[in-house]
Amino acid sequence: MSQLGLLPRRAWTALLSQLLRLPCSSCIQAVRCHSQVAGAVLTSQLKAHQEKPNFIIKTPKGTRDLSPQQMVVREKILDLVVSCFKRHGAMGMDTPAFELKEMLTEKYGEGSGLMYDLKDQGGELLSLRYDLTVPFARYLAMNKVKKMKRYHVGKVWRRESPTIVQGRYREFCQCDFDIAGQFDPMIPDAECLKIMCEILNGLQLGDFLIKVNDRRIVDGMFAVCGVPESKFSTICSSIDKLDKMAWKDVRHEMVAKKGLAPEVADRIGDYVQCHGGVSLVEQMFQDPRLSQNKQALEGLGDLKLLFEYLTLFGIAEKISFDLSLARGLDYYTGVIYEAVLLHTPTQAGAEPLSVGSVAAGGRYDGLVGMFDPKGHKVPCVGLSIGVERIFNIVEQRMKTFGEKVRTTETQVLVATPHKNFLQERLKLIAELWDAGIKAEMLYKNNPKLLTQLHYCESTGIPLVVIVGEQELKEGVVKIRSVASREEVSGSSGNRRDKVFLPLPDFLRNMYLLAEKLSSWLIVVEMNKDLLQITIAACEYWMGGQKKGK
Amino acid sequence: MSQLGLLPRRAWTALLSQLLRLPCSSCIQAVRCHSQVAGAVLTSQLKAHQEKPNFIIKTPKGTRDLSPQQMVVREKILDLVVSCFKRHGAMGMDTPAFELKEMLTEKYGEGSGLMYDLKDQGGELLSLRYDLTVPFARYLAMNKVKKMKRYHVGKVWRRESPTIVQGRYREFCQCDFDIAGQFDPMIPDAECLKIMCEILNGLQLGDFLIKVNDRRIVDGMFAVCGVPESKFSTICSSIDKLDKMAWKDVRHEMVAKKGLAPEVADRIGDYVQCHGGVSLVEQMFQDPRLSQNKQALEGLGDLKLLFEYLTLFGIAEKISFDLSLARGLDYYTGVIYEAVLLHTPTQAGAEPLSVGSVAAGGRYDGLVGMFDPKGHKVPCVGLSIGVERIFNIVEQRMKTFGEKVRTTETQVLVATPHKNFLQERLKLIAELWDAGIKAEMLYKNNPKLLTQLHYCESTGIPLVVIVGEQELKEGVVKIRSVASREEVSGSSGNRRDKVFLPLPDFLRNMYLLAEKLSSWLIVVEMNKDLLQITIAACEYWMGGQKKGK
């Protein structure tokens, strides 16, 4: 099959890929941008005079398309997240987009009302998944899996009022990592926090802080402050708003709307304004009220151990024990955490401003048992990365710094300066594809050379392989670097080093040359029907002209 | 931050990754398999004596979870498909899982009844997407994009009676590649067929054939055979069944159920049993009836040109002009194609047996115009890869040959033979993670060494980094190859080559050594708090013992 005789196909491909890496990576260029899509609201407004005024093309409320530009950014974020999950030994997994409705009920508290139900079309009652955690617990129970470290990247759907500026959509992507199984305390929990740090550092989102608390401390705090047990859940919801609302407003809600005694609210107020490191844990151990509560003491004991592990992981300074952290979801039973990005304050000395949660999670030891017919529990702890919000921040940053992305990875355009060269272009491009080279050509019988070169410039293709009358006669093709406009052809004589060495030797030369050379060029020689690939590394081969400039 | 002083972090990481590639790739081992999931029907049957007899944990009808084992196979297939799409210069894109119902109506013919509608919860009427083609056309029209080469990998949903043995699900993944824009005829169409060949060759699914026809030839054939125009669509549906039903049954359906005159059916019968290469195209040009039909002649003219390009691409022998190919979807307007896998016939001389379509597509020049308020057309041609069916074939093949996959990529387990070494393990593993090494440890305070080694064997982790009392005293760690049980430690003296060279030199040595050496070992030395990484390449360093065996 191979027409690339001199080197074995695999070696040849590896070699050329190696070469192509150099011009490619230095060539991040602007490409045509479907900027209509980039905006937030995707309704295509029709004007009054149009023929079909009732017909509005749009995506459903709270959803959006991702344009190729956005897709590149999204993929980069997901790659970084997934490679971190894999670094920590997680396996991949997938579940259906919808579940039997009964699997999802009574798992989300107030969130249940936000589920998308499918129409009853005869058969089962179904709902789109609301998160990836409940399907994971269902999977564990269904398959009687007692131990598993998995990640899952997928879309989830929530019928919330979309406030798109904040990066909240009704359809959004989640990246979850969870550790299921009975283990010694706090070791998996500490790893989850380590993962959050690695990802947030890796994404270079700026300074961040991870707030940590424990559901048992929250409940213990309510108990010792005198919250009636029937009000635990609703007061917990109020407390959860403290990252968006001031204490006095939350207090007002608890007292005026939820009927909490003012002195109870004030006692809570004393606690929820506390945040700090491991010393605050020690301090709470000594707290006259909290230290009387068994649940709270268990939570504090675990947090103390957690901080010990976080110190060994070198991330303790990123973690803040924060008594105001409550987390909305019903299923948490132990440690809970939430990562927030910090803006540099505008005024010196001012408190850093929180720009919202970008990752969160916690321990949920009871959820799997809710699915198991015998109620067998599988303790779990995990985290979820908020991709949409991170995406918005990265996109914003790219806009600010004028960063552009290439939306394709094409390495070579096959072009011709002459008419009636379609056949040669088709033959040549097929050879390139078969060799694993990312190649394009214009779908025209007789495109103009200038059009072809412009296409490269606008899409960021770094190299053009040109075949014309002269080249065909000589059995060569011309290679042109789009950025430098340098050209080389197979007939250019002794400036070329033919490299037909075994791979190790080749690579050795490669790196020696890479230190010395400014540009790499590839010469594709055609000898009859045999396409031979020659690698030519030419240092300043047009140096004379360059100096003249 | 970096505690890996001697080499810059990036160089060090690259270097270690390079090293790790060797032991890793040779270590595809069996891992624990959630085999309950691997089967097709995912209902967890409960026994009569259980406590909650009404509670059945399952996924919705026609859907399934993907276990980690299945996920690895799926990802491999998708990677190959997507890298082919990128090789052809396609950009990525995404659309929401659901669309406004009105966007999807009147696009799929008989398929429309199989759409999943969402419940009307106040707001818009929504349906889950039925394919990726109609959302693509909606995207083009909405954003007024006139030219685009994109791929899209995503789930689609169809309420078909699931016949799971055939790999048909109600939720399934599609991989689409499409070229939108006004170009010279048949160049993009030929590229679509080239892509199908590259993917099917790449997946090594065995011999295959791509059937090609043109909607205009189908319509022309109906016209010249005397099918009334009102019956074109329903007769087309019957013809489409010829890959599953014998001609006499299809004929019976057309005559008895659909009221076609028997002599008309017989005329069709003469055509639809024709298949062949470009010579059949020539033959049909001469056909006394078909050559009278303008539409058919246009289709034949395009097919002739198509075959010319396919020959230049070197794939003409894989393509069969097949007059029985009709394709179910309404929106096709020109060339249509479908790839089928061929089994070697059991009896010599017998016709190769078709095992069903694994990829298909065609030209749809009118679809975008259906969304455009002014009806502006954007010609399109594309293809869709049937991932589920391919997945089933690959999974079956792996079962047959007993191939196993690793579900994690973990390179190193951090282990200890002694009690009270949790702190050292935590510190060490954090260093490895921070250096980009994929590392795990058991979440136990005091795991047994044997348990730790068994974990490596069962999950395919190739290396163990052992830290114990002796190692701690000497400031080293011991490295053990799980497969060969060889060990080396930082204190083993002059058999080690410390490699602290700049990267090019290092790589040069690397490849020289790779030819000579049988095993690679990594030694991690701990000097006080500084973790220094030394690369040791020891040829038969335990050679004496080996020979003795």
TrEMBL record, chains A, B:
One of its GO terms (biological process) is histidyl-tRNA aminoacylation. Keywords: Aminoacyl-tRNA synthetase, ATP-binding, Ligase, Nucleotide-binding, Protein biosynthesis, Signal. GO terms for cellular component: cytosol; mitochondrion. CDD domains: HisRS-like_core, HisRS_anticodon. GO terms for molecular function: ATP binding; histidine-tRNA ligase activity; identical protein binding; RNA binding. Its EC number is 6.1.1.21. Transmembrane segments: none annotated. Residues 1-27 form the signal peptide. It catalyses: tRNA(His) + L-histidine + ATP = L-histidyl-tRNA(His) + AMP + diphosphate + H(+). Residues 62-417 form the Aminoacyl-transfer RNA synthetases class-II family profile domain. NCBIfam families: hisS. PANTHER family: HISTIDINE--TRNA LIGASE, MITOCHONDRIAL (PTHR11476:SF6), HISTIDYL-TRNA SYNTHETASE (PTHR11476). Belongs to the class-II aminoacyl-tRNA synthetase family. This is histidine--tRNA ligase. It comes from Cebus imitator. The lineage of its organism: Eukaryota, Metazoa, Chordata, Craniata, Vertebrata. The gene is HARS2.
